[in-house]
Structures are given as structure tokens and as C-alpha cells.
Amino acid sequence: MCTKLSTSPCKPGLDAAACGRPPSNEASSPALVGLSRSFVTPYLAWDGRRPDDLFEVARELVEDVTFPTIHRWRDHGGKVVGHFQVYFPEEIAHAGGLLPVKVRGAQVEPRQADARFGSYLCSIIKTSLESALSGHLALDLFVSHPICDAARNLAAVWARNFGYRSEILYLPQNPNSGYAATYLREEYARLKQVIEEIAGREITDDDLRGSIQLFNRNRRLLRRLDRLRCVRPWLLAVDEAYVLAAIGGLMPREDHNGILSAALPLIARREGRPQGRMRVVFEGGFCEQPPIDLLHAIAECCYVVADDLMVGLRWIRDDVEIPGDPLLNLARAYLDQSTYSSVQHDARKPKERMLLRRMRSTRAQAAIITAAKMCEPGLDEQVAYIRALDAEKLPYFVSEFEERMRSFDQLQMQLETFVENVLFA
Ligand code: SF4
Predict the structure, then answer these.
(1) Beta partners for 280?
(2) What is the number of structural domains in the chain?
(3) Rounded distance between C-alpha atoms, residue 366 and residue 303, angstroms
């Protein structure tokens, strides 16, 4: 719900992070604290700058196909877990001292990867592999999920091309089964064992609790960012919110927390007045990511008050419990405290009803229903969304995208016509 904007100040420790010191109230492994300092310095030299500067730096980082943050981490002797979209329990990798990195494609030509796949595939699969084949995305472990045939097969293709382990994390096919949480806890325990082997040390429950605490803070900050955009969308465009959230998948979460804590008050103080733009929900960015220029084109005529871009970072909607069995707490949070996406089939969360609820809670006037080209789950879901929106007589705009799209003029013109029809018809 975006009915109230929190104006409470950042908690103690966060300002320290913004000044380049690790937040004092966040648990993190000693190895991470040492590494974290080296990240914080360049990216938090933002302190005192204008929000526009923040977005520019964040965008450069998101679009940099050489993944400089990962190289920086590795140069300091750190190890990296690359996990494919959509959701991954990053806390487990963090607790082992590894850097969890979101593998979400890149704007590259898949020259080498093309030879490893058939042609009828979404782009993210190929460009993710291309990033690794080119040497820019250097990992110590790759994890995929059976969210679709393409993602499931990616783990095997990856394993054939690299010397390190490639795993599939089997998230429950039936989240409504009474055994789903127990099953998922065991699957997380298996993943923990793999990570322990790579880290060369045991991951204790206290390590996990410390990491859960850190990620809880990150999710809280992301929720504040979402709320701010929903309540005062003229202060934060969808492309700006996107880059600020997406960099979290590329750097230690300690640093991301520091960046968000520094950015939120700056954005809240930004000058700007409400304009006569339509409030919309953007649906279809759960896996392959649209180009940032496409999001910018949308922001030129609409206020995107909610979206599912990089939804894995915001999958869990509340704090994960700290006391008790941390793996079971993470499993329960994945099942019971989560949002929705086209790749999770939970009878408690029919996607079309969830979309309508999201529109109502954000006071959206319309929806942009989109999907990546060749994305079966995304395109399938469009049918259900459209039916539900028709039944409710809610306006919607349907489109497709590809991460390497370069021209957005036509889309922007169509969108402007759509907006005029809704607002002035
Ligand atoms: S974009 Fe769609 S088809 Fe491609 S990997 Fe993601 S979910 Fe699968």
C-alpha cells in the first residue's frame, strides 16, 4: 500500500555507512567488512551530490557489461555466487562470505553464446552466458532455477562451459503443499553445503541470522523507495528507482544499504511538482530486464507507481524472522511473505487478482502489460492479466521488449496516444 510515506530518519549506523564506514548495527562477516570498505569509497563519494548524479552513477554501473564491482571483489580475494533470475536466498551465500550476484543478462551481442543454444530463446539466457564466456562475469558457483525450460537447461549448458559448479535450486513446484516449507528448507540446506565447500568453512546459524538481519534492512530500504515513488511519483521516475534498486544485485548488500540510506533523504528533498501524468503499474519485468531507455520513455508520459522489475530483490515483503531455524525461516518467508510473479504458481496468489490488488493499493489508473520476447511464462500470463483487466474495465497497454532494443520512439508515441485516450476520452 502506498497511502503513507515514512519520513522517519535512517537508523543510527546508516549515516556512518554513507560516510564510507560499515554500518555499526549490521552484522557482517569480518571478510565482508574488509571488502565492503573498498566498495563503499567509490560509490558513496555521492554524499552531498544531487540525486541526478546518483542515478547517473547507478545507471553506469547497471549497464557496465564488464561488471567492475565483481572484479573489484575478486581482486580482494572474494568469491562469487552468480544466481539466475528470479529469486535466490542470497543470505546463504552472504553468510558464507561469498558475494551473491544477480545474473540478469546484459546488453551484449551473444556471439559465442549463440552457438550454444537454439534460436527461439529469450535474450537473457544468451547474454547471461555470453557475459561469462567473455570472461567479464567471473564466478565460483552458478545457480539457476527451473522457472522455465530455458532457465532449467541453462545450468547444464553452464556446467559444460566452465570449470566451477553449476547447480539448480529446486524451488517448490507446489507452494501450497503442506510439505513445501520443509522441502524447501532441505533444499536450502543442500545449497548451504555446496557454498560451504566453496567457502572452505562451515556456515553457522548465527552467520545466517546476521545475514538475514542485513538483508531485512535492505528490503526495508527498498520498500521505503517503493513507497516514496508511489506517494510522490514526481520525485522518482521508474528508470531512476530501477537503477537504484538493481545495483544491489551487483555489490555487497552492506554497501547497497549505505547507498539507499544516503539516497532516500536526498530524493525526498528533491524539487519537483506533480504533473498531469497517468499513474500506471508496470508488469512483465520479473526476469529479462527491459532497456533503461525504455523505462525512461515510459517515465516521460506516466508515473509508474509500482512494478515487478528485479522482483527477486523485493520478493519477500516483510522481515524474515530471526529467532529459530534460519533456513526454515527463509523457506517460510519465500512461501508465505512473498509477492507474486509469472514463474511461481501459488493458488493463494492468482496473478491476475494480485495485479488488480496492486493497482488498487497504488491507485493506478492503468497497467502496462509487457513481456520479454520469447518468454513463455511472461506471454502466457498476459492472457490472464488482460482478461481480468477487461472484466474490471481497467485500461491497459500491451507490449513486448528485448534487452537489446535501441529504438523507443514508436513505443513512446503509442503510449502517449494510449495515455491521452484514457485521460481525455
Ligand atoms: S525471460 Fe522468460 S523464458 Fe527467458 S529465462 Fe526468463 S522466464 Fe524463462
Answers:
(1) 304, 366
(2) 1
(3) 10
pLDDT for position 27: 37
Supply the pLDDT for residue 41: 47
**Cα–Cα distance measured from residue 149 to residue 156, given in angstroms and rounded to the nearest whole number:** 11
| Mutation choice for ligand 1 from 87, 123, 127, 147, CB with most ligand atoms inside 8 A | 147
The number of beta carbons lying within 10 Å of the beta carbon of residue 189 is 14
DSSP, collapsed to helix, strand or coil, labels residue 17 as helix
Residue 203 placed within a domain: yes
Give tens-digit pLDDT for 70-98. 998 999 899 999 999 999 999 999 999 99
* Pocket test residue of 119, 121, 125 for ligand 1, highest count of atoms within 8 A of CB: 125
Place of cell 547507478: 58
- 3-state secondary structure (DSSP) of residue 396: strand
Q: How far is the CA of 49 from the centre of ligand 1 (A)?
A: 37
Q: How far apart are CA 334 and CA 336, in angstroms?
A: 6
Instruction: Classify residue 104: in a domain, yes or no.
Output: yes
- For 30-82, how does the pLDDT look when each residue is reduced to its tens digit (9 = 90+)? 333 334 544 544 555 555 668 888 899 899 999 999 999 999 899 989 999 99
Question: Which domain, by its residues, includes 111?
Answer: 14-424
Say if 275 falls within a structural domain.
yes
- pTM for the whole thing? 0.90
Q: Is residue 6 a part of any domain in this protein?
A: no
Lining ligand 1 with CB less than 6 A are 85, 122, 124-125, 147-148, 150-151, 287-288, 343, 372, 375-378
* Beta partners for residue 143, in sequence order: 83, 167
Which tens digits make up the pLDDT trace of 216-266? 999 999 999 999 999 999 999 999 999 999 999 999 999 999 889 989 999
Atom of ligand 1 nearest to the CA of 148: 8
